[in-house]
Design goal:
Largest sheet: 7 strands, parallel
Distance between the termini: 31 Å
Shape: elongated
Keywords: Glycosyltransferase, Transferase
Pfam families: Glyco_trans_1_4, Glyco_transf_4
InterPro entries: Glyco_trans_4-like_N, Glycosyltransferase_grp1
Protein name: Glycosyltransferase family 4 protein
Organism: Pelomonas candidula
Length: 413
């Protein structure tokens, strides 16, 4: 807005102050073209920070050659690649190796304003140590419930030590971002400090019901009026896929032509194929191809209880799928049962199966719920998420500045 002042005929532009560009170091042990929720959401945040005029330095393990070949073009940010080791059971994923000395040298030469650590593995721990050695402010993400995986991988005795490590890690940071209010409350009760809720967005232009393909559904053996249920994600024990199979079996009794589609890969694929030989295994998908697979589903079944968020929930909602899930993570935060999805109480497997069967029998209710899901997902804009992320970084930077006083201790005017 422009205002003209009479004095000296000066024209004054009342423009907002230019955005303060920051030098940001982002450390993550997973990033595209790896396919998982952490990689995808970190890529969206990094892209958003770059668009907001920040100088982003991305530190991550070097990926396998066959994955690197899938990348197109030159990255839009400054990438620093470190050594990595394959993750057990997931050979396409890498975890970083201890790199404190290299990071201290790197950040001594090009000092960032703040270090953000997305993962708590060896590379993340090295980054935390290096940042503290250089007195740099540090923020982190709590993205994976490692402690909740114990019962699935026979690590029950290690659950407490793992939680102790995670608490020690995050409490050394100036702020830790969590994706839901429920997770903030849970972690606070377990002794985690300085928690800020920063949710996840979804690309509602890519994940769109308009991508539904009759040809794709035909390739699955489904006609226009046949019910197609599906799951997207890792085929792994912690995803509680036995409940998905139980729901499918219950639906098949009343809808013999119903189909089940698994999108993704993982160590349980052979077991699932043996237990559900008529299911479709589409493998790992990405980009517009993944979006088309979502759009081809009528019911999205998500039975995981180990998520901190679960990006697949919002992708399915944006794609116009009716979602059946447990009241946990993103589903618990975003879904009102019977309005924009269906929720069973956490761990109430019989209720999950019953809700799936009810939804399978009521096409009109599925359409209404799917429309509500799409409306909800369209509100989850990545630009708003990036702005919130940025504000947490700015808070950490401000608290690290000499002479900073908390609001309650500011001197009287």
């Amino acid at each position: 807005m422009k205002t003209a002042h009479d004095t000296d005929d000066i024209l004054v532009d009342d423009l907002p102050a230019p955005r303060h560009s920051r030098r940001l170091a982002v450390v993550t042990e997973t990033y595209p073209p790896e396919v998982n929720g952490v990689a995808m959401s970190m890529a969206r945040v990094v892209d958003g920070l770059n668009r907001r005029n920040h100088d982003v330095q991305l530190i991550r393990p070097r990926q396998p050659a066959k994955l690197t070949a899938q990348s197109s073009g030159k990255p839009a940010v400054d990438e620093v690649l470190t050594k990595g080791l394959p993750v057990p059971l997931y050979p396409n994923l890498r975890m970083g190796v201890p790199s404190k000395r290299a990071l201290v040298k790197l950040w001594s030469l090009k000092r960032p304003d703040v270090v953000h650590i997305a993962t708590e593995g060896p590379l993340g721990w090295s980054a935390l140590q290096a940042a503290q050695h250089l007195s740099l402010p540090v923020t982190s993400d709590y993205r994976t419930n490692f402690h909740a995986y114990g019962k699935h991988y026979r690590l029950g005795l290690l659950s407490k030590p793992i939680m102790g490590y995670l608490r020690k890690f995050h409490n050394r940071c100036d702020a830790t971002m969590v994706p839901t209010e429920a997770m903030r409350v849970l972690l606070a009760e377990r002794g985690f400090e300085r928690l800020s809720v920063v949710g996840r967005g979804v690309d509602a232009q890519r994940f769109d019901p308009a991508r539904r393909s009759a040809l794709m559904r035909e390739s699955w053996g489904a006609g226009p009026d046949d019910l197609v249920m599906g799951y997207v994600g890792r085929l792994a024990p912690e995803k509680n896929l036995g409940v998905v199979l139980a729901a499918y079996e219950a639906v098949k009794i009343v809808q013999p032509r119903a189909r089940l589609v698994f999108v993704g890969d993982g160590p349980m694929r052979a077991e699932l194929a043996a237990r559900a030989p008529d299911a479709v295994f589409a493998g790992q998908r990405s980009g517009d191809d993944l979006a088309a697979h979502y759009a081809g589903l009528d019911l999205f079944l998500f039975a995981s209880l180990t998520e901190t968020f679960g990006n697949v929930t919002t992708e399915a909602m944006a794609s116009g799928c009716a979602v059946v899930a447990f009241e946990s993570a993103a589903a618990g935060e975003l879904i009102r049962s019977g309005v924009n999805g269906w929720l069973a109480g956490p761990g109430r497997e019989a209720d999950f199966v019953a809700l799936t069967r009810t939804a399978a029998l009521d096409a009109a209710a599925r359409r209404t719920v799917a429309e509500g899901a799409r409306v909800t997902a369209r509100r989850l804009d990545w630009g708003d998420i990036t702005a919130r992320f940025e504000s947490v970084l700015e808070g950490a930077i401000a608290r690290a500045e000499p002479g900073f006083l908390p609001a309650g201790l500011q001197p009287a005017a």
